[in-house]
Sequence to fold (124 residues):
Amino acid sequence: QVQLVESGGGLVQAGGSLTLFCAATRSTFSINAMAWYGQARGKEREVVAEIHSSGSRNYADSVRGRCTISSGDAKNTVHLQMNSLKPEDTAVYYCNAISEGITETGEAFEYVYWGQGTQVTVSS
Fold:
């Protein structure tokens, strides 16, 4: 069972920076994409940034230009550098990973994994 271990959340003042880290452990299948989602209190969980094994990256409009997602030096790790943080960035941030492919018998599969979340609080 894949486990996503997150770290890096915390309290920061508006305009400050944080880096979130996530590592996927015990992965049997290749991880094709990793992402960070944010869930503010009372709101739905939404994608903040994602990176695919091809290297392509996507960002939510709300963070584009302020955040950078990148693969770590170790396999199946991902970082999210968050700059110029705003109070509205306050949320629990969840690491997400997807493994997908075709089995030897020709069946398609997709496994989605979630971390437990790390709190990011931006004070004004």
In short: The radius of gyration is 15 Å. The mean pLDDT is 94. The longest strand covers residues 91-102. The chain has no helices and eleven strands.
